């Protein structure tokens, strides 16, 4: 399913990383960097959801719950315990992973994927309502503010690195590091024996189980890893945006946007969610004045993708005659 990375693949990856690393050195436009930071945060979220749904075949529509738990968990620990965000973002990921294990144990035993989708969506709604009603702790829809920012530090040969609203470069590079780490985790798992078991479980779970694959354990492993990555993304988002509301991080429109990103970019591909996250994040900024009506645009994009590009934009090269190859490109 996953072909070995060839020289041209490595070259493309190196060029993409080099461009991303060098961008803040070319421009200091805070708005552009802000949009790209959000694209990377949502790229982590989309890739983690694609890991569960695109690769493992688990239809979950409640992953925004883990984003919210990571965000609020990290923020509240930072506010009340005085811990550094450098510590709390990982604690936020751990909280999301524990929640993923808690909901995954009973839910992932269900064979019917539509039921899994509905139950996970219900769990996310419970999280949103709980965050809205715990006003003494979360301040509800008034917004949780006073979230500590990342502390600056000094890098030898570079100088002082500071995290401030006026200078987005430090946040940009931190988001880029988290994105690359997330992609390394997902890619490493998918190119291992575990990845072969995940694909087998998705394509024929009964056959995989007959060959000795422990489906329950494998589903939990994928679900917990995905929840952790989404939780870390949510924790970073909290300390970057500095204010949280339940609707912003646990609203169903966030999940719809992530699903649109994955479907537009390419479900079941490695780079598709990243491409979709970049395109949709830019589109969100362009359509911000439309408020909730932008969900109509998401819906239209999903319908268009399913009808005309069922494998996403990253596979569009397969429709060009001179680019067609017999090899399966799912692992691109």
Describe this structure in words.
The protein is an all-alpha fold. The protein has a domain at 30-246. It is built from 14 helices and two strands. The protein has helices at residues 7-26, 30-55, 64-81, 85-107, 113-133, 135-138, 169-190, 193-203, 205-210, 215-241, 246-250, 252-265, 272-286, 294-308; strands spanning 153-155, 159-161. It has a two-stranded antiparallel sheet with strand order 1-2. Strand 1 and strand 2 (159-161) form a beta hairpin.
How many strands, which pairing sense, and closed or not: the largest β-sheet? 2 strands, antiparallel
> Can you give the helix content as a percent range?
55-70%
Task: Note poorly predicted spans.
Answer: 322-332
- Overall 3D shape: globular
Relative strand content: under 5%
Tell me the distance between the termini.
Answer: 10 Å
DSSP strand count: 2
**Which whole number gives the mean pLDDT?**
88
The helix/strand series, from N terminus to C terminus, equals: HHHHHHEEHHHHHHHH
Taking all Cα atoms into account, the compactness measure Rg is: 20 Å
Structural class: mainly alpha
């Amino acid at each position: 399913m996953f072909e070995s990375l060839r020289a041209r693949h490595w070259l493309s990856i190196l060029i993409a990383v080099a461009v991303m690393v060098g961008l803040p050195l070319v421009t200091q436009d805070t708005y552009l960097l802000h949009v790209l930071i959000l694209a990377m945060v949502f790229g982590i979220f989309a890739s983690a959801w694609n890991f569960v749904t695109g690769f493992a075949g688990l239809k979950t529509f409640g992953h925004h719950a883990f984003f919210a738990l990571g965000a609020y968990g990290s923020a509240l620990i930072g506010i009340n315990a005085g811990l550094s965000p450098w510590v709390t973002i990982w604690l936020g990921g751990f909280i999301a992973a524990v929640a993923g294990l808690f909901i995954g144990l009973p839910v992932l035993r269900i064979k019917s994927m539509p039921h899994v989708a509905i139950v996970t969506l219900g769990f996310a709604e419970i999280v949103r309502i709980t965050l809205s009603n715990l006003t003494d702790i979360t301040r509800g829809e008034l917004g949780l503010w006073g979230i500590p920012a990342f502390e600056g530090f000094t890098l030898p040969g570079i100088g002082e690195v500071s995290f401030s609203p006026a200078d987005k470069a430090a946040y940009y590079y931190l988001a880029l590091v988290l994105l690359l780490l997330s992609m390394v985790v997902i890619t490493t798992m998918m190119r291992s024996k575990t990845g072969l078991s995940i694909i087998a479980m998705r394509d024929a779970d009964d056959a995989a189980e007959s060959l000795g694959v422990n489906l329950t354990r494998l589903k939990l492993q994928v679900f917990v890893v995905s929840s952790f990555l989404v939780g870390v993304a949510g924790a970073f988002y909290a300390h970057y945006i500095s204010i949280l509301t339940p609707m912003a991080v646990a609203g169903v429109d966030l999940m719809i946007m992530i699903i649109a990103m994955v479907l537009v970019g390419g479900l079941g591909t490695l780079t598709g969610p990243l491409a979709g996250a970049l395109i949709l994040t830019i589109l969100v900024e362009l359509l911000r004045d439309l408020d909730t009506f932008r969900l109509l645009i998401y819906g239209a994009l999903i319908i268009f993708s399913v009808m005309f590009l069922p494998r996403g934009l990253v596979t569009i090269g397969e429709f060009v005659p001179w680019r067609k190859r017999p090899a399966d490109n799912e692992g691109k």
